[in-house]
Specification:
heterotrimer; A mainly alpha (265); B mainly alpha (301); C alpha/beta (268); B: 301 residues; mainly alpha; MetI-like fold; 2 domains; 12 helices; C: 268 residues; alpha/beta; D-Maltodextrin-Binding Protein, domain 2; five-stranded mixed beta sheet; 21% strand; globular
């Protein structure tokens, strides 16, 4: 199994390399037309610098770390918001269902960019959060709406027989959830959830309008100061690709292992 | 929350508010009053709802639609043409993805993987710096879009907007169209695959002409299959159109930014922009669910 | 298969290497077209939207007068500031008239005319967060956050004067100022007289610690490299309008007075 994964990864990398060469060659001719001079030699400076006998992180790596940090915190908040919303949706409380439903519809029908502008410039000062937390909140509120649908589907798919069986075994409610329901929900929702993580990382790039120093913001700043958009954006795209592709591979791996263990049908 | 399960049988009254409801209501009241208190005390801002509302609805100097609504119509045009482009491109890419020739299949697969794995914003900036600058001259549209000066008639203006913004519209359409095409490729593919083989064969047996076969047998089923994901894609298109404001495409978010910055009514204008998108997307959802229910009418499932 | 790929790539490469239209006869093209296309960015009060959504401002006046004097119609192409030079190089408009400061770095990509205004750069500071700032060195600390507009000359000035401070770059000046007003940044650096005007408007939050502007500033039109005929033509016009005092008078109206605010909104 491992060997096939490696083979697949290698073939994808080979194809990407060939295509990148083709694209690079095309762009080179195009750029020469515009009188553009390539400055690839400057890129490594933005990744790692060796100065005064030590390695220093370049701006792009700083940005990458911020992106990862942002995504990690947002993931936790997203899971919390998503799960709560899903439970509210499935609960018996009318108010709860209304709140959950309106929240999901509101988020899904407005662009993330507008939500960020509203949250940061309008509501942020009201709530009194700092920049990073506002970004985490904005991303979590956005992604939470979609994640709640995944949780709702997962919870719905647990047959009521499970609940009844647990009851007949006289399990207390908390234990029912902890040992019977949630593991099954987890197994069903894990693959779509990893997609949510990838979405989070992609959406995190929009927080650049809030001047959070994530990878995309660093890119825009460097481009506007040095006028070498091609090299910088290429590099950034590659970094994001590596990040998301490795997450996808992880997801495939997880699904393979969890699925084999838990497959009931 | 599941503790209410036991109350299910009991709580059949006409006004079924239970413990959870009251608890949530209490939380809502607390949150809203706290927000109100904070906005009154914590922020140094005076709300100008009337003036902002007025501003949104003020017509242009030459009597045409207010700038805000011109932006909204731009967004509609972007969405409409973007959807068309994405459908065409998506279908072609979907076909390429499943062709036997690696020459066609590989770029298609790589393109789809690329779009699905990099942030839309990064793609948009790459597009802006690479493609936009090369594509217009390459397609020979430079003269049409930038140099000529005659006026166009009303129908053209209605469909494409004022002449000086044609290039803007085209760049925007390409950009969000390319973003959506990757997802639509998958949607179309699964829609076509979802048609039972028996349908094709039955139509053949009945001696239906190709046109009749597609029109009465295949298309209704495909349309009803792909309408839900397509509805989602259209709404995504509307939302992506707001991101292209960052590369100076003149649509609603861009106009909103200009109006907000010029007038200083930052809060009010952004809330109006949000409401505009909300109304737009909800109407589109409604439209699509009508189309879906209509196309299902003739199907026996 | 491989030959196929190479063939196709080759054809595309040939297509791309076909010469695009030469830019040195752009002045003739403009005259033929009859319209001058001007790239600018929203930046109160250099260029902004009035209540009717029309563009007004100092830059707008300058551009309109330039077109009128040349017998041309005018067309504005609002563009995000950090992408305005690439847009010019991509032929999306003929000239940048947006209060663009002359810098060495920019001069590598564009051709500047003679300066037509001298704005300089100034800093407005949040009283609550950094009320004790008196000299430049006070803002040069790792704990200080200064907001600015991305792609603007002010970013470089900030880096030169306050190398240790953290520079937050926003897409718009309005957002940069909002940041300081909200208390999320200690100071904002922007082209004069914007900081001065904002400090008056929000005198309870902002103040100006430095009497002298940080940089004298020379703003000019920008055209593509090699377009010397355009540059000469614009230089002539700038000289004429400087000599007859029109530029100074317009500058006075937009920057020294606040009369134009009625056109924009009630509370500006």
């Amino acid at each position: 199994m491992f060997f096939t994964l490696i083979k697949q990864a290698l073939s994808i990398i080979l194809q990407i390399t060939i295509l990148l060469f083709g694209v690079a060659w095309l762009l080179n001719s195009g750029a020469q037309e515009m009188g553009y001079t390539w400055q690839w030699h400057r890129i490594p400076d933005y990744i790692l610098i060796y100065d005064e006998g030590e390695w220093w992180r370049g701006e792009l790596i700083d940005g990458l770390l911020v992106t990862l940090e942002l995504s990690a915190w947002s993931l936790l908040a997203t899971l919390a918001i998503g799960l709560t919303t899903a439970l509210l949706r499935l609960s018996n409380s009318i108010i709860g269902r209304i709140i959950a439903r309106s929240y999901v519809e509101l988020i899904r029908n407005t662009p993330l960019l507008v939500q960020i502008y509203l949250l940061y410039f309008v509501f942020g000062p009201v709530i009194g959060l700092d920049r990073f937390s506002t970004a985490v909140l904005a991303l979590a509120l956005f992604q939470g709406a979609y994640t709640s649908e995944i949780f709702r589907a997962g919870l719905n798919s647990i047959s009521s027989g499970q609940f009844e069986a647990a009851k007949s075994l006289d399990l207390p409610l908390l234990s029912t959830y902890r040992y019977v329901i949630l593991p099954q929900v987890l197994q069903k929702t894990l693959p779509p959830l990893t997609n949510e993580v990838i979405s989070l990382i992609k959406n995190s790039s929009i927080v650049s309008v809030m001047a959070i120093f994530d990878l995309t913001t660093q890119g825009r700043n460097i481009v506007s100061e040095t006028a070498m958009p091609f090299e910088i954006w290429f590099t950034i795209a590659v970094i994001y690709l590596l990040l998301t592709l490795s997450l996808s591979a992880l997801s495939a791996l997880l699904e393979h292992r969890l699925g084999a263990q838990w497959r009931i049908q | 929350m599941q503790s209410n399960n036991g109350n299910k049988a009991i709580n059949q009254s006409a006004f079924p508010l239970n413990k959870l409801d009251y608890f949530l209501l209490l939380i809502l009241v607390i949150v809203i009053s706290w927000l109100y208190y904070r906005s009154a005390i914590g922020v140094n801002y005076q709300w100008h709802w009337a003036a902002a509302f007025d501003l949104i609805f003020t017509s242009r100097r030459d009597g045409s639609l207010p700038y805000f609504f011109q932006g909204l119509i731009s967004t509609l045009r972007l969405t409409g043409w973007g959807l068309l482009f994405a459908l065409l491109a998506g279908t072609l890419i979907g076909i390429a993805r499943h062709s036997q020739f690696a020459l066609l299949r590989t770029p298609a697969v790589l393109y789809i993987q690329l779009i699905r794995n990099i942030p839309p914003l990064v793609f948009i900036f790459i597009f802006y710096f690479f493609v936009s600058n090369q594509l217009i001259p390459l397609l020979g549209l430079e003269h049409l879009l930038r140099q000529s000066n005659h006026n166009s008639n009303a129908i053209v203006t209605f469909l494409f907007g004022p002449r000086n913004l044609w290039e803007n519209l085209l760049s925007g359409v390409f950009c969000i169209g390319l973003l959506s095409a990757a997802y639509i490729a998958e949607v179309v593919r699964s829609g076509l695959e979802g048609i039972d083989k028996g349908q094709w064969e039955a139509a053949q047996t009945l001696g239906l002409s190709t046109w009749a076969k597609y029109r009465f047998v295949i298309a209704p089923q495909v349309i009803s299959n792909i309408t839900p994901p397509l509805a989602g894609q259209t709404i995504s298109l509307v939302k992506d159109s707001s991101i292209v404001s960052l590369i100076s495409i003149q649509e609603l978010t861009f106009s909103g930014t200009e109006i907000a910055n010029s007038s200083g009514f930052i809060f009010e204008i952004w809330i109006f922009v949000g409401i505009a998108y909300l109304i737009l997307c909800l109407s589109l959802s409604l439209l699509f669910s009508k189309i879906e229910s209509k196309s299902r009418k003739y199907l026996v499932k | 298969m491989k030959i196929f790929k190479i063939l196709i790539l080759g054809m595309l490469g040939v297509l791309l290497s076909l010469p695009t239209s030469a830019s040195s006869d752009n002045l003739n093209q403009i005259k033929q077209r009859g319209t001058l296309r001007v790239g600018m960015s929203t930046f109160v009060p250099w260029a902004m939207r009035d209540k009717q959504g029309e563009l007004i401002g100092f830059e707008i006046d300058v551009a309109k007068r330039l077109a009128a004097d040349s017998g041309l119609k005018i067309e504005f192409v609002p563009t995000a500031w950090d992408g305005i030079i690439p847009a010019l190089l991509a032929n999306k408009f003929d000239v940048i008239i947006g209060g663009m400061s002359i810098t060495e770095e920019r001069a590598k990509s564009v051709l500047f005319t003679t300066p037509y205004s001298h704005s300089g750069v100034q800093v407005a500071v949040n009283k609550q967060l950094a009320g004790d700032v008196k000299v430049l060195a006070d803002l040069n600390s790792r704990r200080v956050k200064i907001s600015a507009r991305r792609g603007a000359f002010t970013v470089q000035v900030a880096r030169d004067n306050f190398p240790k401070a953290k520079i937050l770059q926003f897409d718009d000046d309005a957002q940069a100022f909002q940041e300081v007003l909200n208390g999320s940044a200690d100071a904002v650096i922007a082209s004069s007289p914007k900081p001065e005007q904002e400090a008056i408007k929000h005198s309870d939050i902002l103040f100006l610690p430095f009497k002298e502007r940080l940089s004298k500033g020379n703003e000019a039109f920008a055209v593509r490299l090699g377009e010397d005929d355009k540059k000469a033509y614009f230089n002539e016009w700038i000289k004429a309008r400087t000599d007859d005092g029109w530029l100074a008078q317009r500058y006075e109206y937009w920057f020294a007075t606040l009369d134009w605010q009625k056109q924009v909104a009630q509370n500006q």
